[in-house]
Amino acid sequence: MSFEKYYKLVEEQAKAHDKQQNCNIGQTWKYHLFPVIKNACFLAEKYGANKDIVEVASIFHDYADLIDYANNDNHHVLGAELAGEILLKDGHDKSFVEHVQKCIYNHRASVVKDKFSMEEICVADADAMSHLDNFVELLLWRGYICESVEKANNFVKRKIEKSYAKMSEQTKLLMKDKYDAIMKVLL
Known about the structure:
The chain contains 10 helices and no strands. The protein has 187 residues and is mainly alpha-helical.
């Protein structure tokens, strides 16, 4: 099944979000959203999860943030609702939509929730993996918003630690060498 329509919708919203943040290089799509989708699909294949559910949930996992960053604290809840509305309007099966919503609802590292399906694990782990894969971009972003080197380093270090801690045990094994290397680099 092709979800190109949703890729385009979210990529366009990411561009608008970046422009609003005075960043015209497309960093949100390139350095976070697309890597999450790519990693989630990789994990779905590796762990035998439903790839369609994982792919759609990963596409929409931060959608509410893109619409308005003021939603950040609750973006997992609002994002699940928004994705549900879009998917139901497009005629997707209610069960499929509910599974996608659970994945979005449970993806956050800062709001730890039990994950009851392999699909939820794939999306949450992929979100965390993207932070490790793109930790340099996180440092640059914090510098871009004029944080001191120390404050930026501490933010990224906490983000990486929290992201790694939320990963499932099997994904931690995949990411351990990268995690250890990043922690040696950060001050």
